[in-house]
Amino acid sequence: MAETQETVFKSVQELANTNQVPEKYFYAQGSINTHPLLLDVPQVDLSLLTSPNRQQQLNKLQSGLKSCGCIQVINHGMEDSFLDKVREISKKFFALPTEEKLKYARTVNQIEGYGNDKVLTDKQRLDWSDRLHLNVFPEDIRELRFWPQKPECFREVFEEYMKNMKLLSESLLKAIAASLNVEENCFLDQCGERGTTTARFNFYPPCPRPDVVLGVKQHADASAITILLQDKEVEGLQVLKDDQWFRVPVVPYGLLINVGDQVEVMINGIFKSPVHRVVTNAERERNTLAVFIMPDVHVGIGPVEKLINEERPRGYKDIKNYVALFFQSYQQGKIPIEAAKISQ
């Protein structure tokens, strides 16, 4: 079993142990600024969204999403000790022997499972990261053969975390609606009853050449929203704002939320899905967990009528299955969100 899976990919972790970087990992556009200025990301206190100070938090949420497409949320209802457990299962999984991890390896045509970049062309630049990608909601899309049985508590902790993510995503989509004075469930309704939630554990081994290698190449997310549990000690995420890269600060027990392309469509471009990337680190490994909230591919999305007016005419088409459009555009070297826009 391990032998057939090993032909699918070579782990970056194994490469890191050789202390050499193959050229296909070199970033095509020259030297990478690994330590630019820090991005000012507002912190939104979720516990105050049901208090008399609600409007202040909604204003923070709106200003953060308008200025850089992301916010940090604090007081989200999960204990610090529980988030440490979530981080621990990730670290322990990636520290397992290769043979054990390969039990969960993805197959050639799948994203789900343990692996890294799908190699689509000879010219493709690869990311310096290994991943464990799992489908979570609706429950009938789960492939439990990919859910690690080691460490022993993995499934239990992960399941608990994802239940929290489901509730959190619903609260956030309602809060985004409230900040824009539109009907509370309008974005949730567009996600549909069978919207999907997927999770991706990311492992970034130390890299001997952080000046020319990226952990994840620049992109925007195809999701409605993305919820990121950052490494609480090691930075790495950068966001593009005003044509400049900025470092995203680490809030150890906060969660970083960014809008994805599909919410950009729903809100007629009032907030933009931020372009972001991950840089590497010569000395330290980094672990993160990203959760992607995706609308049902069978339900069409489009701009909410109330957010279309003379000042902001309709800028986006109605779309079904944005994810297919997203991957098709990427493979053609196009920016996916551009394909969703109406030419003015």
Q: How does this model look, in words?
A:
Helix content is 28%, strand content 19%. It has ten helices and twelve strands. It has helices at residues 2-6, 12-18, 54-67, 80-94, 98-101, 154-179, 186-191, 261-266, 322-331, 336-340; strands at residues 43-45, 70-74, 113-115, 130-137, 196-204, 214-219, 225-229, 237-241, 244-247, 255-259, 276-279, 286-294. The strands form two sheets. The protein has an eight-stranded mixed sheet. Strand 1 (43-45), helix 3 and strand 2 form a beta-alpha-beta unit.
Strand order of the largest sheet: 1-2-10-7-12-5-4-3
Helix content class: 25-40%
Rough outline: globular
- In round numbers, the mean pLDDT is 93
Cα distance spanning the termini: 54 Å
Rg, nearest Å: 20 Å
If helices are DSSP runs of H or I spanning 4 or more residues, what is the number of helices? 10
> Structural class, please?
alpha+beta
Largest sheet, in brief, is: 8 strands, mixed
Strand-residue proportion = 15-25%
Uncertain regions spanning at least 5 consecutive residues:
1-7
Number of strands: 12
Q: SSE order, as H and E? A: HHEHEHHEEHHEEEEEEHEEHH
Keywords: Dioxygenase, Iron, Metal-binding, Oxidoreductase, Vitamin C
Pfam families: 2OG-FeII_Oxy, DIOX_N
Domain Fe2OG dioxygenase: 195-295
GO molecular function: dioxygenase activity
